Fold each of these.
Amino acid sequence: MSKLLFFLVLLLPAVSLAEPSVSYRSIVKPETFIQNCGQWPDSILFQTKVNGAVVWFGRSGLYYQLFKRNEAEADSSDQHLTRLVHEELVGANRNAEVVGENESNYYCNYFLGNDSTKWTTDVPTFSSIRYYDIYPGIDLRYYFRNGHLEYDFLLSPSADPLAIQINYQGIDSLITGAAGELVVATDWGKITQQPPTVYEATTGRPVMCEYQIEANSFGFSLPPRRSDLAIVIDPVLMFSSYLGGNQNEFAWDVSVDKQKNIYVVGYTRSVDFPGQVYLDTTYDWDIFVTKLEPMGRSILWTAVFRGTEIDIATSCKVDQSGNIVVVGTTTSTDFPMYRPLPGRREGITDGIVFKLTKNGNQLLFSTLIGGLEKDSITSVALDKSGNIYWCGNTWSTDYPTKSAFRSAPTEVPWGFVSKMSPEGDSLIFSTYLGFSDDYFSIAVDNSNHAVVAGRTWDKYFPLVNPIDVTRGDVGTFITKFTPNGDSLVFSTFLSASQGNAFRGVAIDSEDRIYVTGTSHAVYYDEQPYPLANPLAGLAWLEDGVVSLLDPTGQDLIFSTYWGGWESSHDEFRDIAVDSSGYFTVVGYFDSPEYRFINAIDSTIYWASGEVSIVKFAPNGSDIVYSTLLGGRRGEGCWALDVDNSGNVYVVGATASDDWPLLDPVDSIFAGTVDRPADCLVAIISDSPTDVSEDTEGGLPLRFTLHQNYPNPFNGETIIQFDLPRAAVVDLSIFNILGEKVRTVVTQPYPAGSHQVFWSGNDNHGNPVASGVYFYRITTESGNLSKKLLLLK
């Protein structure tokens, strides 16, 4: 097979990149709204994206729309450059029938601007497309296989292969290399197409073939053959992409439905983000909503919301029917609206609230809400009836109020809390609360009490039945409203004298309240953060805090610090509790030391920052696991959710090209060191993997994979695993692209504890390079994976 490797090197075009793999595995059929751009000489039939480029399938051939950073205009709104390379099928049939084959489950929805006639939904995607009779007796087929985009020329027995002629426009030169490969040179990088593999379709016997080059065109040279045998010319187009595109994007929230489908919301500046099919490059932040199958097996659909300016999604929740409610902020005056609330005031920025059907192709409503100044919605929650609650901050003195606890602010910015009907047609209540200009969160209990948690600098912030009146430099508050929103059940601080901040709030089936955030170190006789049955009793420079209160807010059941050791900067951002009372927090860690417990990733990249995930037993009685997850360049994680089996889902953004991967839908990081932000999504199983319990007979009770030792290592490392019953074991090593480099063992093992050794060599006995690798054990019981680090 001929492999077309696209080397898009923005800063060092002479450097060859490692062979990548395609991660965005759908070919999109665009609608007419993108087909009439003047820069495109023929109609666009299909589109896909690969490793920093968008590939357009036209009637005359392919267009590669390439992007790179505009260093000369780094501070302007036009921060990247674009160019086209046209791969023209010379003399091809321009009226060839082009058909999408093997329609996938993934599709795209576009809500662009406030003119609903330009919205396009249910745009299909395919795993392959076919040009019929592109040349006489010759079909051309593009398709995805084994993670790569490939193409075949399929020749009937009577077809003339010399008819195939491909011309490149927008390149510098076209030559053949010493091994017969085709090298396409541009000033942005090179395309290398390996020698073609040609075989008889009926027998599979190979046929000799070479490229024939003339100027910037090439074809194929074949020997005489039997006229009754069809042949296939099967080159491979190989590109790759991380989740995201050629600019920054951030996954800001995640919600999981009853079927364990995953909804991720955030915002992107990439014109080639999955689901984006824009030809123009005059863009700003756009909102994306992406739905994935259970366990992230594939992307089902993406919906893009775009105004002419900045549009940001901050929070989402799935209702009982699988519809998704999203909130955020926009500066666009033409943000897509449908059945909006009446009497909208157009401010500097406005809050956004919209609801999509579970298929992502229909807006149930979309509205802006706010006053004449700046308004921002930070968090959303739903009750069992589908009523929608949100909170945020406003600099407006005319934010819409109804049945308000406080109908006007004494100063701005102030926090607000609002409740809307499930249909989005009316406000049930809407009220100011108190001074706050920071992110804060909302949750709803079984009796429709809204609970909000955040921070304030206001010494007059309302307190009702408080458990703690210590405000400190920064007062961290928990406030519970009555169901009609016009009064408070309680409002209290949980504060330290050095200040702290709540970021997340959750409520369990007994209406108990969980909050998480960050608190600063306490020195000498200063007031500490209030603790109850703590698992760690001292904050260092900055530690995460987690607290559990009873429904009345009068009893502090559990409260603890948690984080690294000296000089640590640890921040918890979100919290979720499952049906069994286990609660999990996620946030950011930056310290030379960490409290690892049953960790799935124990590699510390100090001064870069990593995702920190801690799962607590009910009532905070113990730690199930405390683990890091990340790469060498840092990441941030802002939200999590849990499903009905206790699995934990986290989302955020990463700057690391070695973010740990496992069966990814998107395997290649598309950012650069100076432009670091691609979305991350991870799922952690509820089953502990590092705890081995023995029966009376001395056999393990659980299928377990242990962390390798030593780690990092140089020379040889030990990998241990436990089998509760006899099994055939496959233990293999993978690189960060998900490619297998070594099969360590494939053999039967009896029940018991076992260990194997890996010396850092691949399957050919060659030493592998230093870096991050993953080892995975597979048996009939399932598979488990962990990360290891090889240093030379």
Note: DSSP finds no helices and 54 strands in the chain.
Amino acid sequence: MRMNKRFFRGLSKLRHNKVAADKMTVEPILETNQVLSQKLELTARLVPALMLTNILLASIIFVAFASSSASDLRSVAYLPLCITSILAILFLRNSNVGAHNSHAENLNKKPRLIVSAISFGIGCFWALLPPAMTLASTGAELIIAFAVMGGVLSVAGLTLALTPALALPFIIPVLASCYITLFMSGTLQGLYLATGLTIYISMVLLVSLNDTRSKARGLTIEKARAKQDKTISLLLRDFDQHASHWLWEIGTDSKFVRVLDRFKDVSGRTASELETLTIPDLVAEDSGRLPALETLQHAINNKDSFTDVHMPVLVKGETSWWSMTGTPDFDKSGIFKGFHGVGSDITLQKKSDERIQFLAHHDVLTGLYNRAHFTELLHQNVSRLERYGATFSLMFLDLDFFKSVNDSYGHPMGDKLLIDVAARIRAVMPSAAAISRLGGDEFAVIFQQSLSQQQLREIAEATLETIAVPFEIDGEKLQIGVSVGVALAPHHGTRPDQLLRNVDLALYRAKETGRNSYCVFEAGMDSVARERRALEFDLRYALEGNELELFYQPFVNAQTNKPLGFEALLRWNHPIRGQISPAEFIPIAESTGLIGPIGEWVICEACNVAATWPEHLRIAVNLSALQFNKDRVVEIVSRSLAESGLPAHRLELEITESLLIDQPDDAIAKLMQLKKIGVSIAMDDFGTGYSSLSYMLKFPFDKIKVDKSFITAVKNENAAGDVLRTIASLGKSLKVQMTAEGVETFEQAEFLKDLAFDQLQGFFFSKPLRGSEIPALLLSMTNKTLADGYGKVVSLRSSAA
């Protein structure tokens, strides 16, 4: 808008100071070619009249001195003077002295020289008359003669006012002749006439020269004014045709006057339509009350200037934004004449500003609020809570299995899924809810109205249901879930950090319960969180403090009961809390990233211990999905085997199908690399997922370990036995070893033996043992005959215990 203001101020100055040229002091007078040309043209118009005057005055002299003795000399001067005057008239009529010569290159000097010569010739003829008349005239005739000569010189002075260069050749010889004649007369009357002539001629010359200066100044001012008018005209025309701004003007009735083309174009109206409207009439009807418009109307009513007033205008059915700048018009008497100003279309700038403002507060992908605006809204609601006691609620949402979609189908598909998820969340939330995307697959909702726990539970349940419906994107059906955490203010906190922590705890608890569920914060969760943070802190030093230890549980041949190997089971010997189960600290290790170094230590330690066992015994190690996803897992296994000297076929790695759910393609590629090394791969907890069979077809597993929940259910549920028969049959068809874990009774062992399971594992055979206890167990098994049945096995279990 700077150009807008500069142009407006400049134009206003030009308009209101147009008469300033009249006050200019032309010192010195600049005789430009154009001014000189104009003066020559005026002179050319006067010369015919001057020549006729010369002839008339010469005729008076001729008649007055008809009886004089100088009549012959008079006749000699009279006739050439008249002839020369007539020739001057004809020459000037046929020449273009000064006419249309506005440029230096067109200003011809030759006609001016001819006119100067004619002027000099006529002056010389007049110069012959004074001495002739003086020789043979009386005193009265002499006075008449010199009075006529004074008139001749006065007429020449008129020409001197315009073009001295043309008048002086005439005046000088005439004036010289008069003075010479008067002084040579030797009479007192001659002296008087010379003195009077001097005074008269001086006044004529003074007035003529002053008039010359005035006329020159007038011509210069007129030229400057014409140039100024042309400049203003060109400026207005260029501004109106090419600038992004336009000029407007309103009269005393506030209606537009003198509408220019540019204004008509941008307004989408004709000049006649605009001349019936005021500025407020242009405002879009749906704009409501805008402070800027009130400012504009107040300025017009009070005849004040206004600058950059932004107003929405309806142009051809669409809303555009204009910026209006105006100043009042007053004449020289101070009478108000209206307003004039400059307008500009700022629609694109307005849209750009709105876009920037939108991006500052919204997520680009989903259009929801972003994290920054969520934080701002949270603090605003906390302030309202503190000041007015206005309650509100928070809800955190975290998508389940979204990462697998990104990994399987790519990020573009993941982005489309997030857009659809955002739309579904909007659909189930109240209209007043402020929905934000915090980043990735995390969402948050602030319920600014007061809602009960029951209402929040209903919203959470509706959210779970709508997200559980499969998404269809680009011909693919995608199934995901969502975990929801809820916290209410002030019941669950009165500070932003406190509320965020508690709603996050509720979300974590929802994920712990199996995902695709919701949880409202409870006071006990805080103590659990503190306990968890304490464990997390201690776990960071457990590896360095040698607090981690491996226990080993044997798995045996289902038919001969001979041990085939051991499964390594991790324990944490906490110096204060005692022994902590992996089920308690492994999730903490996975969430904190400690699973990487802990898992590496487990593999190395298990290989080192197993290398000391008899060659027919194998070691089985469980791999966490997060640990497996590390790019170094193949390298770690290879290095551990090499450093321990354990043959690769004696190492068995157990994975769960969750590993394949998260990154199926990448996981299978790594499993293939491990198989190439010679390591055996077993699927653990078979039957607990929803797609186990599909994974059996994708990767050639060496072993399947059936989850203990099926073994436990055999006694009370016939269906469990049928499932186990089907699984055993599947193993035979796929030629995969089948292992049943969690065997705790003789009946279970017998049933599984009859089903032709290959391996059995559980407390019925042995509890997990320290590495130092394994030699004793192996020695006991070697010294006893196991073929006698399970009674002997029981005795082994007792002795080992």
Note: The chain has a mean pLDDT of 78.
Amino acid sequence: PSIFHSPFTQTTFMFKHHILISYRSALRNKSTFLINLIGLSTGLATALLIFLWVQDEWIIDKIPQGQKAIYQVMQNLNSNSGEIYTSSNQSTLLAPSLKAEIPEIAYVTPLRTLSLATYLSIEDQSIKAQGAFAGKNFFKVFPYRLIEGNKQNILTDPSSIVLSIDLAEKIFGSSKAALNQTLKVNHNEVSGDFMVSGVFNPTSIKASEEFEFFLSHDYFLSTMEADQMHWANFPSEVYLTFRQKSIDLPTFNRKIEDFSRDKFLALGNSEENLDWVGKLFIRDFSHKYLYNRYENGTQAGGRIEYVKSFVLIGIFILFMACINFMNLSTAQSGRRAKEMGVKKVVGAQRKTLIAQHFFESLFNSLLALLLSFIWVVAVLPGVNDLTDKNLSMGLGYPLFFSSLALILATGLLAGSYPALYLSKIKPLVVLKGSNPHSIRELWTRKGLVIFQFVLALLFIGSVYVMHNQFKLITTKNLGYEREHVILFERQGQLMDSTDLETFVRESRKIPGVNFASIIGGNPVDMEGATGGYEVKGEKGTVKLSNESFGYDGLKTLGIELKEGRDFSRAYSNEENKVILNETAVKLFELKKSLGKRITVWGDEWEVIGVVYDFHFQPLYEQIKPLVFFFEPDDTEQIIVNLSPKNLRNTLKQMESLHSNYNSGYPFEYEFLDQSYNDLYQSESRTYTLYTYFSAISLLISCLGLWGLAAYTAERREKEMGVRKVLGAKFKDLILLLSKDFTQMVLWAIVMATPLGYLIAQKWLENFAYRIPLHAGYFVLAGVSVLLLTWLTVSLHTVRAARTNPVESLKRE
């Protein structure tokens, strides 16, 4: 007998008993079980997808465990508006000076990313790759694993190049075969033959910037003019490591804060020009991706805000699914309460009953989790396309423990209220048929439903706001043409200025080409800026954004002149001329612009034109002062304005002309409107994800409403019969049954509107140009949800209202 009463035997028996009870409960309440299963699996699938996305985001730019921390040197510069602008670019003089004068630093390396993709050629083979100029200590700072080459001298030779293993295998067949081979590099910043001095594996860090090759930073320095190498010119980034494992960041930042400014003054520069040089500080390299936004010199978030918001969304959606479980369980508490009462009478303890409810909840959660895995596997390819990631359901420890945590959290949360509530009801009260807690239970259920709808309304209202903001972005007149305008890189033979000018001339002869020109960078986001501009006889020095243009650049982009002219072949010495925008004219306080001469670093240019302000940066930014230079040699892109008629034929002729000048180089172009839309890719993906989350939240809410409506209609069936006998009309019964659900949605609208307004206002603050915000977006969301609520409950209410009173009254 002692064997049959052992703890193990009792536990096994209770486990089997709980499984049997859970199975019978599911069969007895099929609709409730299916609603809970679908709702929980949807919530769990959403949470798992968000976990996979967050996990992938979290490891970007993270240094492998055991490696020394890497820090990036940043600087805060004063802008024309009086605000502080934070930049990661530094002077080429900074890296060697820091290493020489700061003893705590172990290694320091500059890094300059090549702004355009580069072609690497060997014999007749050309491969497009992304690279950068790196200092000789780059591989001592960054823990990329060198497969071939010596870390001590790998980038000391200016004519050396280091390839990624994938690129080495693609070009030479293997990493060993690549070593000491010669490659021809073609880029506007670098051109010539380089010897492969090493091969590295880039997978040791999941970096936000991925490079396929590195050239020596010393080569880049050799291409710079002597007057460009000063403390107020910032072409490169700087990274460093310390000798010790930990560093007191605030103390070190105070130590280097005025490092560049002191060097600048020591060369005899005036304190009036000190704003040209920034105050330095360092940040952890692992913060580069997630904490990439600064406001007025202070760290103000970045992509970490998306990570946090999606974590909250996952929790909320999962919580909504748990609410359905709790609501439907408490709604059926009358049936289960009698079961609990009988069990208590025959000797069951409260802890046993609590265990039974939690077991049922965990059992349902486990089934929902298994179903959610199927959901995730089915939708993961689409999620990867949407998020531009390569997420997978690899069965590793993080996923296993996360799934286990989700099961426990979901099961305990979903089963908490019914387990703790039903297990404490007194048997005598229940078996008599009364329930003293019915009012409290009703209000609890209503409160949970209202909370569900508040979340759903916040999602839907946010989607409405995002939709209208993106409509503004895509339809706003930017002040230049982006329809039927293509952009492609200078490469190969077009790096020669004579061939480039001939190519542009020949392009304009093609039928369907309106204008063609050259430009320094992409016109949708002109990032170049420098300081030290002066206008003789006018206001003092200021900072201006700047861009290089060729002939007819303004005509090609459709930028409207306010006064003056464009750069033209009809005039000589255009290299000494500039064009300003309206904001620059206002900043200089010019009464008469044309003919004025501006100077910077000793060089002088004449103002020949003023353009109306246009948006040359994303709409997050106010329009800044801008100056156009005529500098064909500093341009990187060719821009062509096309007629929409016979567009395909025009592009074929452009491709043919391009191949005549660049045999072996593909004609790879992009339309300017697509390039513009890519600026808001992150927000566009967020908008799409919010749309899906809204649909999921509505699905879960409606599933809960469906179950509650079915229960309410069943519970009030006799009441409806009595009311019909007494003469109640059909529409009165419909209104009576729908009233509670309508009130809950109206309460949700009242609560969600101010909260949603504040959230939307915070998001819109990211845009300098934004839609006017009003509560109507959330009221519209509320009306949409209200209509969907009526549709969801209508089937049950209509059926209950149409039930024959004789049938409903004779049931006991």
Note: The chain has a mean pLDDT of 83.
